[in-house]
Design brief:
The complex is a heterodimer of chains A (about 350) and B (about 850). By secondary structure, chain A is mainly α. In chain A, about 75% of the residues lie in helices and about 5% in strands. A two-stranded antiparallel ribbon of chain A has the order 1-2. The radius of gyration of chain A is 22 Å and the shape is globular. Chain B starts with 9 loop residues before the first helix and ends with a helix. The chains are: A mainly alpha (about 350), B alpha/beta (about 850). At the A-B interface, helix 3, helix 13, strand 3, strand 4 and helix 17 of A face helix 4, strand 1, helix 6, strand 3 and helix 24 of B. Strand 3 of chain A pairs antiparallel with strand 3 of chain B.
Chain lengths: ~350, ~850
């Protein structure tokens, strides 16, 4: 290795170590604030707005799925090359999606502030950032769950074909099965109210089980001649992976914007409207159909800030563009940071 | 004194409010000013915008596109904004002196730092990004070599995606939904490719989509071609849906290259209709990105030059007689990025061999005209003068003396007043007529002079002075990338066009052509049959054509027969019956592109595929063609028809002229006959030595040869079709062409088509265009522009039954949302109950 490669390697290792350290701190903080996470999550599922969001979201995606399916079963020269784009690169989807993060986050701080429980929350033995992180994780989990029913579309969107399962006893297959089993057991143990020790065990089971399942799964399908389950996809599955990954990160960005706005105002509706307006900055450019693709700085800037364009041009087609990914992550981090500052500002105002 | 925000004086608070309001107003004014400047076109970029702003303020109204008022508005707004910011900074710094403010300032500093960090990270990612391709087929990934090439590119290239409802290269059938769908896919793929190219090149790539079917087309066309005449011309001339690549080099020279959509993605109509169990799907053949990349990377390369060697200007690409002109060939080649140079091989006045460009022949013609006019005008002028004098004198003149004075003109004596009146009338008429003629001649004279001025006469004169025929032709064709040599020997209607002698090349010309071939350069020869109707013999024609001998040395054998078709035999019979009436001229069958028995031929493959892709036959009909064979072994298949007869029909390769004919073995026959061939006649045809109706043979018919026919078993054997009418071969140059130490190319590409009029027409049909274009591209080694079997692209389709589809539709569109609505209601009820 030359000097440059050494420097790069050392830099990457250092960055990785710092990242892991930071992640560890966040996870520990989150574990300490698990009651708050649970309370927030429960609050979502006990509120009717969550189900309204679910129904509207699934109605829209269901309709887009219908249109896509129509194209996939078409005759003649019409069709769709990237089914995921037909669904999630569509303006109609983004028009509806725009409302979802503000609806999820609007109550986070605004409701607490309006009902006067924010002061009580701030007296809890938690740091400000832990409060913010807990609320963010709760709304993010809700957001992730919102997407879970859309997995039902995938067998057709990927043209999946599954053959009869068979039992294979290779080490990798067993690792995969053990991993899946550990995840299931861990999740089941997470449900009842138990002591800290058992809770830690369940979390460890989920974490280690997931790692084992992924590792075993990859190695099993790459190395073993026979597989537990033969799955073939007639349509490239890469767009599905990139879409869900990007959708999670984009969601994190919009949710953090919503959280920040919610921390600033007292009224939920105002919080939702302002969050929607701020989010609009990242969506509206996508509706601007650029007939002239100049490739100039202006066009590139429009693309850079337009989430629908990221999806229609990259993520729904199996491409991972690092520009929007970094934008989503950095914006999410910034707005979470600003939310923490916003909570802190109550102390010195 | 430190400012205390809580206890500040009321006037100070008001002053601060005023400053803030001023700052806000300044911001609005600056934005309005910038907007106006943008509308006035004064802000093409940040740097230029600032320069224009200053120029407008300093009174440089002529140089700046900005109105001074706009500039003042901008600057005034900015000044107010800066003033307000300055005051704010001072106040904030004073506030920082307090402890409470200090913590706030600390938070503000953190936020500012976070914002800077965010901006920095995103700026870095904006300029150093990567697009990771997770697709199975890596469809958005370019090869490492291509990436390296792209990294070398600089400047700006515009790719114009031009959509227009014109006939495609070949398909004459009407525009269909399949074509429209294919266009949409091509546009998207081009955009994708441009995005990929941008990632690796420092070059700015602009994609402009011009759709002639949309109403904004005109405005956009004007906007895009405002300062680009080359692009405008290319768009105007584009014969079909095209991708136009445009750039301007450092010297400001425009470079435009064109590519049909088909060169990138080609619609396969046959497969499209058959796909999806006959229900149809869009099937395209992916030609890869190479054709487009080649255009982008080599945009500034010279256009291929084609030398078009003809025996008369009428046959050139500028010929004006529809029956003889190759205007269609010229237009087609120009439209596809070729430069065509006509070279005339025979003097029009003497018929002697020459080598002249059209410019030279035009100068010669103009000089002849000029000379003629120079002689005629003074004569006409003098006549007019004399007639006018006579007209002036006659009314009052004494008739006798007038008659004497103008005795030469009058050829008689005027005797009375009646003669005077008659002469006056005649003179009036003559003067009028002569005046008109004279004006026309003078006008023509000035036109000729003007045209001569426009032509590079000095250069032409220099050329004309070159007496060395071989040297001159060598020079003219040496910088050509391809030579096309047509020999139009027969009209499509049948009778021979003229003496074959007229087409024979001079030895010097042949030597020049040989020099050209020796360099390994390609040749497209369209050689019509040489049978002569005046030849009383029906026996094999005496072949003594040196060009054909030259080709024979490359292994190409132009058989001395003419191919006749069964429909023509019927026409002959009909004509014979009706004798004095106009005979019927039936269409001969289309040529075919079957796979040769000796293997694949790239050119034939391309044409065959074209036919399949368009789901229609290539409509090329060649009446009276001749068979053409390729025998790379130099005579091994026997070309000598009458070994012991009076006529040696053909001498293929030097010393083998008298070698005994080697007869084809039956199993070798098809392979030998179709070697290198890409173009075949229909099987409803036969070859004939004397294809003209005569007294003894009024209706030529196929007659099986006698058993003892010496041509039996050779390529010249009289037989039924199909016959190869065109060969495309990689010919090896004979060793004897080169002196020791002279560099010898491995092979040279040669295409010979057995018809002289295949490309004669003011407008070539799409099928003939395709034949010509593919031939030229193949000859120039641009194999990537030929149609080849390629990876298929098609829309994914699901094989669901109608019932399954309905289940999915209802399940996902209705019941999934309903399920969550139901859950919501349950939760609501439970909450109420608890």
């Amino acid at each position: 290795m030359n000097l440059n490669e050494w420097v790069t390697t050392v830099g990457l290792v250092a960055a990785g170590a710092i990242g892991l350290g930071l992640l560890g701190v966040l996870l520990v903080g989150l574990f300490q604030a698990r009651s708050l996470v649970r309370r927030e999550l429960a609050a979502y599922f006990l509120s009717p707005i969550a189900y309204v969001v679910f129904v509207v979201f699934l109605a829209v995606t269901g309709h887009l799925f219908f249109l896509t399916l129509d194209q996939l079963t078409n005759t003649g020269p019409d069709g769709v090359e990237y089914p995921m784009r037909s669904m999630f690169g569509d303006e109609r989807f983004w028009l509806v999606f725009l409302f979802i993060p503000p609806l999820i986050t609007m109550r986070s701080f605004a409701e607490e502030r309006a009902s006067g429980t924010l002061e009580m929350l701030m007296t809890a033995p938690l740091r400000d950032w832990q409060v913010v992180l807990s609320k963010f994780v709760a709304c993010f989990v809700f957001y992730v769950l919102l997407w879970v029913p859309t997995l039902a579309y995938l067998p057709l969107l990927m043209d999946l074909k599954v053959e009869t399962p068979q039992f294979v006893t290779t080490p990798f297959a067993l690792l995969l099965l053990a991993g899946v089993g550990a995840v299931v057991v861990g999740l089941v143990l997470l449900v009842p109210r138990v002591g800290t020790g058992l809770r830690l065990v369940s979390v460890l089971l989920v974490g280690l089980g997931a790692i084992g399942a992924v590792l075993g799964g990859v190695l099993h399908y790459r190395q073993d001649p026979q597989h537990l389950l033969e799955i073939s996809a007639g349509i490239d599955p890469a767009p599905v992976l990139t879409l869900y990954l990007a959708m999670m990160l984009a969601g994190a960005m919009f949710l953090s914007i919503g959280l920040f706005v919610s921390s600033l105002v007292r009224d939920q509706l105002v919080a939702a409207i302002i969050a929607l307006l701020v989010s609009l900055v990242f969506v509206v450019a996508g509706f601007w159909r650029l007939e002239l693709d100049g490739g100039g700085t202006f066009d590139r800037l429009i693309y850079f800030f337009s989430v629908p364009l990221h999806f229609s041009k990259s993520f729904t087609r199996g491409l991972l563009d690092t520009r929007p990914l970094i934008l989503y992550v950095s914006m999410a981090a910034l707005f979470l940071f600003l939310t923490v500052r916003s909570l802190e500002s109550r102390r010195w105002r | 004194m430190a400012l205390n925000p809580r206890r500040s004086h009321p006037w100070l608070s008001r002053l601060r409010l005023l400053v803030r309001l001023l700052g806000l107003t300044g911001l609005v004014l600056a934005l309005v000013g910038l907007n106006l400047a943008h509308v006035q076109g004064g802000v093409p970029s940040l740097e230029e915008g600032w320069t224009n702003l200053l120029a407008a303020v300093q009174g440089g109204g002529d140089e700046s596109a900005l109105h001074p008022e706009t500039a003042y508005l901008c600057l005034f707004g900015m000044a107010l904004l800066l003033l307000a910011l300055f005051v704010e900074v001072i106040l904030i710094s004073r506030k920082a002196a307090f402890r409470r403010s200090a913590s706030g300032l600390n938070a503000a500093a953190q936020v500012a730092l976070a914002l800077v960090l965010l901006a920095g990270v995103n700026l870095f990612s904006f300029t150093h990004y990567s697009r990771i391709d997770w697709t199975r087929s890596k469809q958005f990934t370019l090869s490492a070599e291509v990436e390296d090439e792209l990294r070398k590119l600089r400047g700006e290239t515009t790719i114009v995606v031009l959509q227009q409802r014109r006939k495609t290269e070949f398909a004459e059938d009407q525009f269909e939904d399949y074509d429209a769908a294919a266009e949409g896919v091509v546009i998207e793929k081009v955009r994708d490719l441009a995005e990929q190219l941008r990632q690796f090149s420092s070059q700015r790539l602009r994609i402009v989509i011009l759709d002639a079917r949309r109403k904004e087309y005109r405005n956009r066309l004007v906007e895009e071609t405002k300062d680009r005449p080359g692009l405008r011309q290319a768009i105007k001339e584009a014969p079909e849906n095209s991708l136009l690549f445009y750039t301007r080099d450092d010297r400001g020279k425009e470079h435009v290259q064109r590519l049909g959509f088909d060169a990138f993605l080609q619609l396969d109509k046959t497969a499209s209709r058959k796909a999806n169990d006959g229900k149809g799907n869009l099937v395209l053949l992916e030609k890869g990105v190479e054709p487009i990349l080649r255009r982008v990377i080599n945009l500034e390369e010279r256009r291929p030059r084609v030398g078009f060697l003809v025996c008369h200007t009428l046959l050139s690409t500028k010929g004006k007689v529809p029956m003889y002109t190759a205007e269609g060939l010229g237009k087609m080649l120009a439209n596809h990025g070729f430069d065509v140079r006509d070279i005339v091989l025979k003097s029009e006045t003497t018929g002697d061999a020459t080598s002249a460009t059209l410019e030279e022949t035009r100068v010669e013609e103009l000089r002849d005209t000029q000379g003629g006019l120079a002689e005629a005008v003074p004569i006409y002028q003098s006549n007019v003068t004399v007639f006018k004098e006579m007209r002036a004198e006659l009314p009052k003149a004494n008739l006798a003396s007038f008659s004497r004075k103008y005795a030469r003109r009058l050829r008689g004596i005027l005797s009375d007043e009646e003669d005077r009146r008659r002469l006056l009338a005649v003179l009036d008429g003559q003067i009028g007529q002569l005046d008109v003629t004279l004006q026309e001649m003078k006008k023509r004279q000035s036109e000729v002079e003007e045209e001569l001025r426009q032509l590079n006469v000095d250069e032409v004169d220099t050329q004309r002075r070159i007496a060395d025929l071989r040297g001159k032709l060598t020079r003219l064709i040496s910088d050509c990338d391809l030579v096309i040599l047509p020999r139009f020997t027969r009209l499509p209607q049948g009778p021979a066009m003229g003496l074959n002698e007229f087409y024979r090349l001079d030895d010097a010309q042949l030597a020049a052509l040989k020099d050209y071939l020796k360099a390994g350069k390609p040749l497209l020869a369209c050689l019509g049959p040489i049978n002569d109707p005046d030849d009383p013999k029906t026996a094999p024609h005496v072949v003594d054509d040196k060009l054909e001998k030259l080709l024979a040395q490359l292994g190409i054998y132009c058989a001395p027969q003419t191919v006749l078709f069964d429909v023509q035999a019927r026409d002959f019979a009909e004509q014979r019956r009706r004798r004095f009436q106009q005979g019927n001229v039936s269409l001969v069958p289309e040529v075919e592109f079957p796979e040769g028995a000796s293997g694949k031929n790239e050119l034939g493959e391309s044409l065959r595929l074209t036919s399949r892709l368009a789901d229609s036959r290539l409509d090329i009909r060649l009446p009276y063609p001749r068979p053409v064979y390729f025998d790379p072994d130099g005579g091994s298949l026997g070309r000598l028809q009458k070994m012991f007869g009076a006529t040696v029909a053909y001498a293929p390769v030097g010393g083998l002229a008298l070698a005994p004919a080697l007869y084809l073995k039956p199993d070798e026959e098809p392979a030998a006959r179709s070697r290198g061939a890409f173009l075949f006649s229909s099987d409803k045809s036969w070859n004939d030595d004397h294809p003209f109706p005569t007294g003894e043979r009024p209706a030529p018919q196929f007659k099986p040869p006698e058993l003892n026919d010496p041509a039996q078993g050779t390529l010249d054997e009289k037989r039924r079709g199909p016959f190869p009418l065109g060969v495309a071969v990689e010919a090896t140059m004979p060793d004897e062409w080169y002196s020791p130490g002279e560099g010898k190319p491995k092979t040279s590409r040669v295409v010979v088509i057995g018809s002289g009029n295949v490309f004669v027409d003011p407008t070539l049909s799409p099928a003939r265009q395709k034949l010509l274009l593919d031939s030229c591209n193949w000859l120039l080694g641009r194999d990537d522009q030929l149609n080849r079997e390629a990876k298929e692209w098609r829309y994914p389709r699901l094989g669901l039954t109608e019932l399954e589809k309905e289940y999915w539709l209802w399940g996902t569109r209705l019941w999934l949302p309903v399920l969550f609505g139901f859950l919501g209601l349950v939760v609501l009820q439970v909450r109420r109950a608890l």
